[in-house]
Amino acid sequence: MNLIHALDIEFQFNEQLQTITPVLLMDEEYTILIDCGYPNFMDHIREAASRSNVALDTITTIILTHDDMDHIGSLAALKRSYPHIEVISHEIEAPYIDGTKKSLRLVQAEASLTMLPLHELAQAEQFVRFLQTIEHVPVDRLVSDKELLPWCGGIEIIHTPGHTPGHISLYLPLCKTLIAGDAVVIENGKLDIANPQFTLDLEAAVQSVRHLLAYDIEKLYCYHGGLFEGQVRPALERLADSYESRNNEPRHNKE
């Protein structure tokens, strides 16, 4: 049985072709979906899973890397269709997923409305309304940093804050594979920070990249970019170095 199935989903957004890559992990008993796309993406997920001969009703578990619309958007629909699915997230992220706390992405978007020029305001307000429509779902199981889930030879939870406070990545020691979520993305064949202008704590995001250097990673799956083809450790080091060097550049006061 193939342990890992990358579900590359292509779609049109703002008249551009985009791709997201949820991941399926499988062993003899469990089928685990890592993140679940935008709202109304169930058909996309079903089609992508079928290419790996996996039916959605066999999914036992959904692990959410964080509370963002493109990662939790179809969670409610999946849970309604398959109520047996167990939903897992980091303990910090769970209140945003279940609606106990307002989504930090929504807070960020609402705050931007007071700073935007008039010609950008209508689109920003539309985005806020869209975020307000995301359905909340209770989280069944909370996890924390370094917790080891027993499936697929062991899945280690790595707390990788920055993009959001409770963001997690997943490490499978059996196959030396990291599922990064949005801890890193692939841009033009290189690793980068996901949407640094919208990252809630960029310094923490860079430190999370440094933290990943402690792991022996041969394969790296990014939600945006898919499988990274290259030497993972040097690429992570270059990424962290590049952001830290920018922060360390001397700033000259203008006279």
UniProtKB/TrEMBL annotation:
Keywords associated with the record: Hydrolase
Superkingdom: Bacteria
SUPFAM superfamilies (UniProt xref): Metallo-hydrolase/oxidoreductase (SSF56281)
Keyword Hydrolase on entry: yes
GO molecular function, one term: hydrolase activity
Gene3D superfamilies linked to this entry: Ribonuclease Z/Hydroxyacylglutathione hydrolase-like
Catalytic reaction list: 3',5'-cyclic CMP + H2O = CMP + H(+); 3',5'-cyclic UMP + H2O = UMP + H(+)
Domain Metallo-beta-lactamase: 19-224
InterPro entries reported for this sequence: Metallo-B-lactamas (IPR001279), NDM-1-like (IPR050855), RibonucZ/Hydroxyglut_hydro (IPR036866)
Sequence intervals crossing the membrane: none
Protein role: Counteracts the endogenous Pycsar antiviral defense system. Phosphodiesterase that enables metal-dependent hydrolysis of host cyclic nucleotide Pycsar defense signals such as cCMP and cUMP.
UniProt name for this protein: MBL fold metallo-hydrolase
Species whose genome carries this gene: Paenibacillus thalictri
